[in-house]
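Memo to structure team: turn this sequence into structure tokens by end of day. - J.P.
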Amino acid sequence: MKKYIIYTEYKPNLELIIKKYVPGATLIRGCGIYKYMKENMAQITIFNSDFDQIKLLAKNIQQINRQTEVWIEKQNAILFIIK
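Reply from structure team:
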């Protein structure tokens, strides 16, 4: 199973952008430092989606929100679902 984490500056429109590309994600707001400056940041965690979709999502976030960079972290993950 793959886990993708997208790091970007937080903007109120992120939820709407995410919904266009993946059926589910976790959106966490926080504080980050980018080029020595404090900024509102977002961490978007997505499991088991197609990497091409993740790249399109990140590119769309970058373009719509006029970001210099959007980072994608790709990990192998083991996920346990408790029912």
